[in-house]
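$ ./design --mode recover --in tokens.txt
reading tokens...
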């Protein structure tokens, strides 16, 4: 109850990749919807309190969530370590008709796994002792979180099929500095995620209207 009664205060942090600060990464407080962006050195300041969950996100880094505690405020700065996205070379032209199914490697209709799903499948299948060791080491839970993160990143990319950044600002009245935070807020909604994944974009836009109203209330309450 003590955590819930505390007021939010400035949390000074730094986004790091290995030993270097990285700029232009959005830091989103999931409890309030408030977002900030790291400067060229990776530094940022955001209002938070113990118990809040903040997310670090950018097109060039892997999405990560961090739980804020009392210790977070004692660290100056509070360091958030992220990993860079793995990009494929744009110069390579891929013939989409050539895949594991067309080549006869995988039977038609068999489930295709994403990279994170493949790692999880490997860790949770096979001999019993391997499964037990992975569970005891925490590797299985880590891989499950990686799958969820990957799904959110893929969903963020699909939102472009529903609405552009310009439309989010003009039609849904989301301030430009909060657009990225709103996108992350959207992917956290299961009904919206299902609508986008099933390509029911009419329903997705309908849900965006209600979600935008809730999101605007969140950020206005924090001003």
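writing sequence...
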């Amino acid at each position: 109850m003590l955590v819930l009664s505390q007021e939010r205060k400035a949390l000074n942090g730094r986004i790091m990749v290995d030993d270097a600060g990285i700029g232009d990464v959005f830091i989103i407080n999931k409890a309030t919807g408030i977002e900030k962006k790291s400067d060229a050195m990776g530094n940022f300041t955001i209002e938070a309190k113990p118990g809040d969950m903040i997310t670090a996100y950018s097109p060039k880094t892997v999405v990560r969530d961090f739980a804020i505690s009392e210790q977070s405020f004692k660290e100056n700065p509070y360091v958030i370590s992220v990993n860079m996205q793995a990009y494929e070379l744009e110069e390579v032209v891929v013939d989409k008709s050539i895949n594991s199914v067309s080549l006869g490697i995988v039977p038609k209709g068999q489930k295709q796994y994403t990279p994170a799903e493949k790692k999880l499948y490997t860790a949770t299948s096979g001999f019993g002792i391997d499964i037990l060791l992975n569970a005891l080491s925490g590797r299985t839970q880590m891989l499950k979180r990686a799958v969820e993160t990957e799904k959110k990143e893929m969903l963020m990319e699909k939102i472009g099929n529903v609405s552009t950044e310009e439309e989010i600002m003009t039609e849904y009245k989301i301030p430009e500095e909060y657009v990225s935070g709103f996108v992350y807020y959207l992917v956290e909604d299961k009904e919206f995620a299902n609508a986008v994944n099933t390509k029911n974009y009419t329903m997705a836009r309908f849900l965006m209207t209600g979600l935008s109203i809730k999101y605007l209330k969140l950020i206005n309450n924090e001003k």
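exit 0
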